[in-house]
Hints:
- The protein is mainly alpha-helical.
- 77% of the residues lie in helices and 1% in strands.
- It has helices at 4-14, 16-26, 28-38, 43-71, 73-92, 97-125, 128-160, 165-169, 176-182, 185-194, 202-207, 211-222, 224-241, 258-273, 276-288, 294-318, 324-347, 357-360, 365-368, 379-390, 392-406, 411-426, 429-440, 446-474, 477-498, 507-514, and strands spanning 350-352, 375-376, 407-408.
Amino acid sequence: MPNRLYVIRTALIVALGGFLMGFDASVISGVVKFIEPEFNLTKLQLGWSVSSLTLTATLAMMLAGPLSDRFSRKSILVVASILYAISAVSSALAPSFWFLVVARMIGGLGVGASLIIAPMYIAEISPPKMRGQMVSFNQLNIVIGISVAFFTNYLILQLGQSDAGWTQTLGFAEHNWRWMLGLETLPAILYFAGLFFVPKSPRWLLMHGREQEALPIMEMAVGNVAAMQELSEIQKSMAEEANKEKGSIKDLFVPAMRLVITIGIVVGVLQQITGINSVFFYAPTIFEQSGIGTDASFVQAVFVGLINLVFTIAAILLIDRVGRKPLLGVGLTGITIAMFILAFGFGQATYTLGADAAAIVEGQTEAIQPLVGQTFSTDVAFKDALESALGLEAARQYESELIASAISMNPTLILLGILGFVASFAISIGPVMWVLFSEIFPNRVRGLAISFVGLINSAVSFLVQLVFPWELATLGSSTTFLIYGLFAAAGLVFVLIIVPETKGKSLEELESQLVRIKE
């Protein structure tokens, strides 16, 4: 009998890399509001401060698979934990914008490595009937990390407003964003220590001819009888590949791989092009656009994290019962509807400054006066008018308060649209994508293939994060979310027509079905 506790414990430790990834990526959502005026950033620089982590994560994703094939999955994860700690400390102490960017890029190397290797390792140690849930632990930990980051950002913001002596001594008010970034040091150290209690991947050991080390691990994971059967299947698969050249990038594009690589690329792009990291990395910014103010925007960002967590848990409970494809279909339908709701909600907004606007902008009463009473039909027109009247620096400083004063819209509709989007993502393409990636590629090129599609996924994520502040300023909130909704609708059609169901099948069985190699 398989030792479920052993598999679960091992998967949870390895998936702590997902927690660090989620925390590291989304903690920046609370930071951007404070670093933009402190470092006097342009919108593209602001986007760069967020997306720089993803840039190096993209590089790490391409290298992590082949490196893990050579040095072991576990060794790469240990290096990732060290990079997380270095990044957290350096980011918190950053004296300049570019120093912060470099520190975030160091963390990105850890993000890319753990995002690729953790689900790969978990898939290789888990029994087929548990694999979906176990691999989803990584996504669960990512969303827990996101939720914790939203919560600690809000907590630090509140501590900065406290009159307590200890909060003032620790500088929560003047160094709030530094505390937000520095907290990651603690879980990074915990991850480093925890990895010493997990074994090397049994499939990796077999790839390197270390059968005597692999068998006891497999017996603990799947039971004695199943371990011998699985060992025989893996050895047979490796024997069939023995006379073939080592997997290379060109092997991903042979005719036999056309179906799985197409699925991998499209699903990888789809997960990011629907805007999930725009929401996670800029959540307070988005909510501020609905006119609710800074404190309320941080509170609603906490709601985003909680909804993400609840529906990710639901996905883990359902993924091996309902299957991968039904979850994708339901989730992408929800994403499409939610994005159209957001586009409608922001599209209906109007902006009219009242007489109280003069009290908001200190010392610029005369400058703002010509805008009082004017009605603007789009957020872009309103912000442009503020910049023309007040100047760029002052317009940024008072933007949140002036939007809250001028806007006429239903902010509840925006909250429901965002939460609906996050729920739909979390129960579908969020966790399901990584489960699919760990299942559909053949053993010989799994590491390389996951790295390749992960590279594309991360590259799209980088672009989405980079241009989002520019999109809000240039296209407006309504058009931006409409674009995301159209991408989701196109992805839904692809999933319904092309993507196969993979639940309950061994990795070798899936390879024989999806990759038909003609001798």
